[in-house]
Amino acid sequence: MPRILFIDVDGTLVDYHNRLPGSAVAAVRAARSAGHRVYLCTGRSRAEVSPDLWDVGVDGLVGGNGSYVEDAGQVVLHQTLSAGQCRAIVDWLHSRGLEFYLETNDGLFASERFEEASAPLLARYPARNGEPAPTTSSAVFHGMTFGGPLHRADVNKVSYILTSRSDHLAAMEAFPDLQHGTWGGRDTDALFGDVGPAGITKAGAVEALLEHLGADRKDTIAFGDAAVDIPMFQACAVGVAMGNASDDLKTVATHLTTDVENDGLAHAFAQLHLLPE
């Protein structure tokens, strides 16, 4: 029976050095040849999905942790911050001295000192996962622009550097009607916070796509590695946590596989009989 597969990108499809395992590419292509539909389901905005990810051969994209849904080139859902909301967030971050970047489908737009301020964080994130550090934010964040306009009306979400957990709590207090999250680490050790439109989750996007396809939840399988993937797991019939996944995601998963670096996605596809016989 054909399945609908939702695959997180960072830590699931690609490793923490943004390397795409050949086994994962082969598994996705084989699954599609067997009649399954495959969608990237990621916190990345469309501009951050590099050509090599599209070249894997997928049916569409759930981006911005659920703010954007695309199927076979057709936009199914796109919810952005209003111009007023974006301005208020940008001005608040400036007033607090926090560096940030705006995520849009046309690119990423960094604040004045983001490259300098992000360097120590970029060194910490891969090191925490046993990888050597990248060099610059430009090498990590595909499609990042410096010096662009920061008051915009096309922003999916705003990510900002956390100097402490209190920054995330203060953002929630300042913008109680918007969606808040953290990423780049676990729990109180997160490196980035983000702010997006209210009610945006991967679960809502999965449901919108299933309605568009006329498909049923019982045919869905999710693959992920982080707490932000929990709503996606709850929206799908099957949830596969990578070996490198956070403990809280493993708790809600129905299946476990090996680390992304150890062909975890390909092993999971084989275990779930998604590949041609």
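(the above was protein one; protein two follows)
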Amino acid sequence: MKPRNAMVRRSRQRVCQKSDSITFTLAIGGGRFIIGAFQTIHMKIIRLIPAFLITAFTVSAGELNHPPKGFTALFNGKDLTGWWGLKTENPAKWMAMDKKAFAEKKAKSVKDIHQHWSVKDGILINDGHGMYLTTEKNYGNFELRLDYKTVAKADSGIYLRGVPQVQIWDYTEEKKFKLGADKGSGGLWNNSKGAPGKDPLMLADKPFGEWNSFRIRLVGEKVTVHLNGQLVVDNAKMENYFNRKGGMPKRGPIQLQTHGGAISWRNVFVKELN
């Protein structure tokens, strides 16, 4: 029989290699207590915890998509409720449509998103094609949190109030280095050349196959972006791609862009701000 500690170490290695979310269960005096759920736990951290304290690791899709206090889940983990479809379209134009024309536009878009967007095990998946997933509700000031995972040569982003965009790059694609892909994701790419925020302050992307986490805060026209815990845009003015002299719209939808490659999303949460 193998020593118990060796078995625990191997168990911990298997879980760490395969899991993005880990729940620790601590056994003390016959009782069990949850001591925390962590994203992407590294082996160096795991080795610091005495083996006899750790009795179980569990990973559950049910733990996904549950918003932290003060936030609302935009994605329910089950289906596309609360979403419709748009491309890169000036919000001022489609918001001005009459009710009948808008209803027809929306109904047509819903058919499209169901062809290219799907849900599996609590993960929102796009096949690299189709319209951009768009919230039915429009937002003013807000904080947005979400996780994404993409593939090589993908080009995506997040539209704020219907305006492009917080950029998501393949930071290894040399053909797009001239566009700034080598600088990494998180910048306000549609800002004017040289404008604050257009390029991220640092490369913070994780390797392909790993989940990345955004925290995006929009107040007025100012945007702050954290990618994987790193500050990449610091309270920079976001230009209105559709009307650079007119400023950002007061309200608009949040959009998840699909452009050139499959991308997955989870834990999409928003908190409205005053």
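Reviewer note on protein two: Residues 187 and 200 are 5 Å apart (CA to CA).
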